[in-house]
Amino acid sequence: PPKVENLEIVEVDAENQLTTLRWQRPLPPTNGHITGYTVILSDPRFSRGIEVKGHEICPLWNNYH
């Protein structure tokens, strides 16, 4: 599928080790539909993915996930 649009780091909270991201849906794929996104967290010691459902919309910004 095409890459997401307008990927941004909204906030970094070093004390609580939290990062807030937002992005807009990519152009529609030519051979299916988007069911979700995987955000991969990694550092030199580990890596893991967090799943975000394709229909979840951010309540703070219109048209953002």
From TrEMBL:
Coiled coil: none annotated. Signal peptide: none annotated. It comes from the Eukaryota. SUPFAM superfamilies: Fibronectin type III (SSF49265). CDD domains: FN3. InterPro entries: FN3_dom, FN3_sf. This is Fibronectin type-III domain-containing protein. It comes from Bracon brevicornis.
